[in-house]
Amino acid sequence: MSSAYEQKRLQTIARNREILESLGLHSHSLHPPKRTRAPLKRLRKSEDPPRIGRRRSSRLGGGIKGGNDKIKGVNDKDLQEEEQPQVLYKDTGLFYSTSASEQPGVKTFQFQQKSGQVGRVILAEGENEKVSDATLKKIYSMDWAADAKLLAAGGHQGRLAVLSCGSTDRSTAQTEVRFSWKASCGWISTTQFVYSDPLLLLTSCNKGEVRIWDLKKEHEGEPRLAGSAEVHKNGIFSMHEVQKRVLTASKDRSVVLSSIGGEKILEERRFADLHSSVVKCVKWRPFSDRVFASVSNQELVVQDSRMEGVSVRQDNSHGLAANSLCWCPNDTNLFATAAFDPQVLVHDLRRPGKVVYRFEGHVLGPRVSKIYHPIFVGDRVLVPGNKNLSIYCSKTGETISRGNLPFEPGCLAAHMVTKNLAASHGRTIRFLNLQL
Question: Could you tell me how many helices (H) and strands (E) the chain has, helices first?
Answer without folding.
Answer: 2, 30
